[in-house]
Amino acid sequence: MPSRRLLYLAPLAVFAVIAAAAAFYLQSGRDPRLLPSALIDKPAPAFSAPGLEYNGKTIRQGVESTSFKGRITILNFFASWCTPCLVEHPQITALSKTPSVALVGINYKDKPADAANWLARHGNPYARIGVDPAGEIAPEFGLYGVPETFLIDRVGRIRLKQVGPITAQVLKEKILPAIEALKK
Amino acid sequence: MRGAAALILLALFVAVAAPSPPASAIGPGEALEDAKLEDRARVIGRQLRCLVCQNQSIDDSDAPLARDLRRLVRKRLTAGDDDRQVIAYIHARYGDFVLLRPPVDERTWLLWFGPALALLAALAFLFRRLRRPRTAVTAEALSPEEAARADVLLGDRGDEP
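Above: the input entities. Below: the structure tokens describing the complete assembly.
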């Protein structure tokens, strides 16, 4: 009976389907640890972060979420203790020179002295820097590590989230095109 | 006798499966003064995944992020949110992955109901198989060639009794 013989092949067929699906996802280069942001196309959470101060000097004014309205903003969470932040620093610096984009930083769980020294040594591309020493603003943005970068449009909605460092490739292929799209 | 054995097995199973109150990673000074509110915070914390650890809830993880989220839960509770609102607040920011119990919606129905469907399908298959009457083996008449071959093999003994 050929139909019964075929039935014996059914488990193999099921396995083949599962194997094909697994192979597809493994080959797609998708990193399962990268979670899609739940905040995409949602208004940026309201917050107010005091500026970065060190030795009685204000290094940068703080950041208010109300300031996001009316211009394109790159919001970058960074810390002096975060090695990948150093990796992305040249690209962050390049972003600060992008016309009609405001680059603001949130200094995450850092000591002001460390942050000030880090910025003095590697350059300070940020127009404003708010501090989040206790990690209270970060959960509002669904942050689960540094660096994370948010692209916020002129009406104050989050349009893009980059988890991990902005490499030269990410800058060229993801961030800059997204900024161009927002300018239109 | 068998009933007793089954009862013992069942008791063992229940003992193993029953959730014991889990140890918490809550540090000193973290807990709320209000014991009722703190109890609610603990229950909520056990439903939220620590995103940087493997399958630990924020209630039992030592990770700094888990601590920050525990604090956020307590802040929202103190602000007067009910349990559902607190979970919705964190869900809105961290997405489905933060929920240890995924929501039931069109994207997850296969996850939720797939195993039951597979079990039903297997049971249906099994019952159909068991209910089918065993097919009697019917002797088919030999073809003339076969009869001739059988005669050769058995020796021509004729048909006399």
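Note for the figure: The mean pLDDT of chain B is 83.
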